[in-house]
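User: two proteins, same treatment. go.

Assistant:
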Amino acid sequence: MKTLKSTLLLFLFVPLIKPAPPSQEDSRIIYDYGTDNFEESLFSRDYEDKSLDGKSIKEKETTIIIPDEKGFQLQKDESTKPLSPKKENDEMPTCLLCVCLSGSVYCEEVDIDAVPPLPKESAYLYARFNKIKKLTAKDFADIPNLRRLDFTGNLIEDIEDGTFSKLSLLEELTLAENQLLKLPVLPPKLTLFNAKYNKIKSRGIKANTFKKLNNLSFLYLDHNALESVPLNLPESLRVIHLQFNNITSITDDTFCKANDTSYIRDRIEEIRLEGNPIILGKHPNSFICLKRLPVGSYI
């Protein structure tokens, strides 16, 4: 009977008994475990997101940095232009030493001793006050458009035959203040020839040197060693400077025509003969065709 009562009492009190709360240590373990799972879950999701984002970014970067072959070729064509090939007539050494400007080459006082290579389009060369001693046919062989050459103040003693033969457009040639003893064959279209202050003698000028120069207007041969006035001077001449030579004689045919008293040389504006050992007054018939008497000594 007592046993039965004890059993009944036990069933009555069991529902009233609550399980003891977990200890702090157990709670920490469970909490830590749960947190670790949560962080691991977050980390895993974040890693996946970053992986996806990274993959997307990588794909975008790949598209930007490595374009397709056609696009790259187009961009290359637009941004990169090939350098133009160097022209045959591009003579940079000459144009660095001298000044090249619109067909004109200025090589003045640069101590050159020979004609430098010139651009093919050169029309005017000014090579004054240098140390050039000789002019050759090769100097101008490939420069057909030259119209003016000026070699004032050099040391030129010799000019090869044919040096100016291919310069069919040359209009002005200045060889003043050099060491010339004779004149070369001159190009046919010259309008001005200047060889003053040289050492030219009459035997250094051939009889036909000026005969065919039908455009020649200005002739400067003063301050040389001429013994006579050059022969066959063209009708086109306007100015003739022969002062300060060694001219000792003049004939009736020097400027005029002895057999034609009606002949008038109306183009000549100036003839200078002062400084020569000649008395012009002794040769009155030598100037009857001129509008103006030559400058010089008449007594």
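Protein 2:
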Amino acid sequence: MRMAEGGMASEEYRTFLQQPSGNMDDSGFFSIQVISNALRVWGLELILFNSREYQSLMINPINEKAFICNYKEHWFTIRKLGQQWFNLNSLLTGPELISDTYLALFLAQLQQEGYSIFVIRGNLPECEAEQILGIMRVQQQQRPRLIGEEEAQTSAGRSAALAQTEMGFGVEDEVVDEDEELKRALALSRQDIDVEDEEADLRRAIQLSMQGAVMSNKSSESEMGNVKSGSAAGGQREGQNETLTAEELRKRRQAYFDRQQQQAQPNIPQQPETKSTGGSGSVNTDAEDQQQKPSQ
């Protein structure tokens, strides 16, 4: 309407309509000039917080009534309601309580982040919230979050849970693969062990058979030696038996001859010496005959 005051047919007005406005847009953004003119309607004035004019006054921020902050076409208000300060940022899920000691630090933090801060000077219009908070103080148990932060955290949590689930499945698959590989390795090692056991058993069987053959040869040789030694000993024993038997027979024959001779001596008549001398030949012949009979 201000631009149309110069004439709607003017070239400036037509240029203004063709070009986007630097004072407002469809998102609700207004320039500092628009806000300053709007506040003048209520008798309020904007002063730059970090200007020399305001810093020279050395006013404690808690003694002010409100601040307007701007950063990249976004405005929000810090206002004192009753005896407490609140951050009325529309990007939050609700008003944020700010303590008196934290207010100066919060403003300094905003300046470091690049915000432009303006002090509102004048009497603010009355509102119901200020009347209620003038009677009672509030205590905030939980600070509000940024709009979309919960959804972002929820989506992040879901994505993280999904990633963990996928990782869990991947880990389970890897574990299953490792288990299968371990089982295959154990099976192969068992097969190798079985083959080695079979080869070892075969070797032991061959060795035992060879030892058995050697032992059998040795035993057969020893048995043959024993037979030979037994036969030799038997022959010696038989020879000894035969020798002993001949000796016994000889002794027995000698004893029998001695007995016969003793029995024959008393039956021989005593002859005179003259006859005995002449008949000695016959007597000797009889004795010789008696001796020859046993020997025969």
